[in-house]
Design brief:
Length: about 200
């Protein structure tokens, strides 16, 4: 990997920024080395590839960040373009796409905290109530209702609005705990049954 030749003289913040760029490239299926024709070497073994570059409509990296032409400062033009657009990676933050269904390019990327990233996951369930749409986790924080209570209510057939706007009671929390115990017991019984069959 090209980075190793420069890692000793690069500062820690620059290394963090490089790693963010390298991981973005890998998620989208690109290595950081190039073939003889100058195109980045595709890789599909990265653990997150299926959710990014392996999608039906793949998430891609903009051309300037994808450029793996060697740069006199070390590494590639793509990395230095990424650093120029995004700045140094702040400590405790990671690269986040503002629109999860769009590509990696300057106007769609930001440095975000883990909490901000969790709120921006494509797997989040969005709930609309009183004309506002937020991820379920945001409603839980805003209305001070445990996330598990909202999940339980929706599973019981409550409307989205009622699930996030109705104040919760301790009785509900107790019902959820009892339901969890029953679910766990069912799983254990099912597992025991499979073990006896084998």
């Amino acid at each position: 990997m090209v980075m190793r030749a420069y890692s000793r003289k690069w500062s820690s913040p620059l290394k963090r920024t490089y790693n963010a760029w390298k991981n973005m490239m890998a998620r989208c299926g690109w290595g950081v080395t190039k073939r003889e024709d100058g195109i980045p070497q595709p890789i599909e073994s990265y653990r997150g590839f299926k959710r990014y570059g392996g999608r039906t409509v793949p998430i891609e990296v903009c051309a300037t960040w994808l450029d793996v032409t060697p740069d006199p400062r070390g590494h590639t033009r793509g990395f230095w373009a990424f650093k120029a657009d995004m700045g140094i990676k702040p400590y405790g933050k990671s690269l986040d796409r503002i629109n999860n269904n769009d590509d990696y390019y300057p106007k769609n990327c930001r440095w975000a905290t883990d909490i901000e990233q969790a709120r921006n996951k494509s797997t989040n369930r969005l709930i609309t109530a009183e004309g506002q749409t937020h991820p379920m986790v945001v409603w839980a924080e805003k209305m001070q209702i445990p996330y598990a209570v909202i999940t339980y209510r929706l599973a019981k057939g409550w409307s989205e609005e009622a699930a996030v706007l109705t104040p919760y009671t301790r009785k509900e929390e107790k019902a959820i705990q009892e339901q969890k115990k029953r679910d766990k017991q069912k799983r254990e019984e099912k597992q025991d049954g499979e073990n006896h069959d084998g």
